[in-house]
Write a structure and sequence with these properties.
Blueprint (H helix, E strand, L loop, with lengths): L3 E3 L3 E6 L2 E6 L3 E3 L1 H14 L5 E6 L3 E4 L1 H8 L7 E7 L3 H13 L6 E4 L2 H8 L5
Parallel strand pairs: 3-5, 4-6, 5-7, 7-8
Antiparallel strand pairs: 1-2, 2-3
Helix pairs in contact: 1-2
Length: 126
């Protein structure tokens, strides 16, 4: 299996049983983009399940349908848990709000420290 996936929207890397993702700068995530990202990730990583670590940079906007999709069972296909690493308290507040409005169907947490996020995600590796 290849460990690096580079799409027009997001760059992903599988290392130590965790998929780490960085959205490319200026992304406007629609539900169509969200569906494509999930489908490509799931197929590329051979329909296996992994925890996912996402960094908050790159996303310029995300519509409500995309947020709801990413929170759904279908949007979390092949994901055992999710962690988001944020850089600012404002972003933390926004992501926290999004988790409240569009409740994910998998365990999700927000972190400011990448190492703590990875430590938490390790509980969900196969």
């Amino acid at each position: 299996m290849k460990n690096v996936l580079d799409t027009p929207y997001v760059y992903m890397e599988l290392k130590d049983g965790i998929i780490t993702g960085w959205y490319k700068p200026g992304q406007k995530i629609t539900v169509a983009v969200a569906r494509q990202v999930v489908e490509i990730r799931y197929e590329y990583f051979e329909k296996k399940s992994y925890p996912v670590l996402i960094f908050d940079s790159g996303v310029k906007s995300m519509d409500k349908e995309a947020r709801d999709f990413f929170a759904s069972k279908e949007g979390n296909l092949g994901i055992t848990a999710g962690a988001v690493v944020v850089k600012s308290s404002f972003t933390m507040m926004m992501v926290n709000f999004l988790f409240q409005v569009s409740r994910p169907v998998i365990p999700c947490k927000i972190f400011t420290d990448e190492n703590k996020a990875r430590e938490w995600l390790n509980k969900f590796t196969n």
